[in-house]
Amino acid sequence: MKLKKFNGLGQLTIPVIAIALLVIFNLIRDPGFFSIGIMHNNDGNVVLAGNLISIINGASELAVLAMGMTLVTAACGGQDISVGAAAAIAGSVFVKVLKSGNSISGGTVLLAFLLACIVAMIFGSFNGTLVAVFKIQPMIATLILYTCGRSIAYWINGGATPTVNSPIINAIGSFIPGVPIPTPVLIVVCMAIIFKLLFKFTSLELFTQSVGINGSAARLNGINATFIKLLSFIILGVCVAVAGSIGVSRLGLINHETLLIDIEMDTILAVAIGGNSLGGGKFKISGSIIGAYVIQMLTITLYAMKVSSTDVKAYKAIVIILLVVIGSPVVKKWFNKVIDRMKNKSVAAQKGV
After folding, report:
1. What DSSP element (H or E) covers 48?
2. Residue 170, exposed/middle/buried by CB under 10 A (0-12, 13-18, 19+)?
3. d(Cα 9, Cα 327) in Å, to the nearest integer?
4. H-assigned helices in 163-220
5. pLDDT tens digit string along 144-167?
6. How far apart are the C-alpha atoms of 251 and 164, rounded to whole Å?
7. Which of 52, 151, 172, 349 sees the fewest Cβ atoms within 10 Å?
8. pTM
9. Which residue, 263, 323, 264, 278, is CA-closest to 298?
10. Domains, the chain
11. Tell me: the pLDDT tens digits for 277-299?
């Protein structure tokens, strides 16, 4: 009898186990927790509803940001803590362009989004330059925009919180007429496909991992480490613009103080829960996406258990600490040693038979 080789804890093991445990817990607590219903929304369209839809819909902005944050983490060995503030800036630009005309057409929305992307990429380039060129630690470099970003968003619209009322904006933030799946979920799928194609037809994934593992060795092999780090921040800028536009479209207005508030920490945690090393190197975008849904499922679960909003963060912190510790290199190394010891005993027992 041949024994299969066990490679230890895989990168997706922890997030998959976390999702499974939350699913089992909720099914035991409430067998109908994940049931999906069909209803009519305020516009009279048939849409899907239920806790499961709320989870995958509510995590959309977080999932998009986690994709971009994964690249920055892998390439730079640090995190961008300004994504929430940058999203507020992008959202403000988005609204500013939408309000510049008499009516909101498809072309106006596209132009607003493109300009929001450009602005977010410029701010991403600013952060990337500090990190890649001036060698400033990512968390310190992005602390600048984290501190002043929402003030910049405030200035863009003159301190106002303008509303945007348009069927197109409503469709982006909720449902496209005739499509029962929330539009933000479809946007996440599109972003995931774009990343998949980007990694398939370019060497970005390999270059990013090489730079994150050993920047000096990557340079000796002809990889421009500075450019790769800068590019990771620029790509994160696009993700920031997408998340900011979704957030604005959900609310139908821009509030620079509350738009995606505190999402920075959840984004970093999604990357960590996804099995990615916060010190850079090998990464999986899919792990970060699952990590985002783990966080959102945990949040919805706590609210379903009537936990007050002031206590939710404390409970989330406890669970997330456990998940991060279990997925830490120390615990993984110990687990792999235990598995190897069990495997060696099994082999020895077979030889003795």
Report:
1. strand 46-49
2. buried
3. 9
4. 167-173, 183-201, 204-213, 215-220
5. 999 999 999 999 988 888 999 899
6. 9
7. 349
8. 0.92
9. 323
10. 45-293 (1.10.3470)
11. 888 998 999 999 999 999 999 99
